[in-house]
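We treat protein structure as text, and this decision shapes the records that our systems exchange. Below, we set out a record of this kind in full and without editing:

***
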Amino acid sequence: MRITRKDLDDAVNKHILSAQQAENLDLYLQSLPSVGPSFNFTNVLYYLGGLLAIGAMTLFMNLGWESFGGWGIFFISLAYAAAGLKLTQLFESRGYAVPAGICATFAVTLTPLAIFGLQQALGLWPDASSYQEYHRYIKWQWIYMEFGTLIVGTIVAWRYKYPFLIMPIAVTLWYMSMDIALMIAGSSAHFELRALVSMYFGLLIILLAFWVDFRAKGKADFAFWLYLFGVMGFWCGMTAQYSDSEIAKFVYFCINIIMIGAGVLITRRVFVVFGALGCSFYLGHLAYDLFKDSWLFPIALTAIGLLIIYFGVLWQKNEKMISEKVRKILPAQVKDFLDSRGN
């Protein structure tokens, strides 16, 4: 959590800290380097401008660029990327971390456009589809652009180490999960197969995110975007699976409960949000399908809700004791990681 001056003043009023201790602690906290961007007007302007520039060269790219031809698109993309990296160096040298990260990300997002232009120039593009369709449709030919983006994104992220650089990598991995399903089954890939590939690919990205989070503990949040798109891919793929079995639906509910618990344990809200959605879907299934028109269901659900509240009270009373017992059986590295996450 972020400690404000008001929190320190409240601690002084409650005689937890002296006024001098609060003042010294406030000065110390202000001297610490920021591990992530804060929500203020300056950063809103940074990200608004950066996202407009990124969107112009990705989501909002129009057919007018086709007139430059393959080589034109390729070299213009390289020029834009070089300008983005030059600005990254400039901002980095002057200590502006947020705009430096945005400019480096802008350079990475030009990779698929450059590869598209190169493929067209070399006569390797398989059909008449345009770059506009890259962010709209699932096609196997995007895979070269995606692999190239992963390689360039990894190199640039290794060089500059800004968390926002993980965003294009995470988006590309998400795109790949859909395109690989099409490559496996061809144009006849059915919805269930795509959902299955998305689920397992999302799980792999979550594991990658946890590894990155574990390695970067105490540093900047490099795992945020991987968690976001990994959970999104896993949860959407899992939710899209269809089964008539009530046991399978209950397992789905249990997995969402586990996601909520994991999110609380490692303080990642994305797990909690999607887990809560999944639980809501399951309870909606019970209300509208399994126990339709049953007067007992609302009563039972109310009782379950009150029971969960009671368990919450018990947990609050015994959290310290339970946590200490659990931590005794955990490896030292895992305990350090949980401590770094504020647990």
The CA atoms of residues 84 and 103 lie 5 Å apart. Residues 38-242 form one domain. The mean pLDDT is 81.
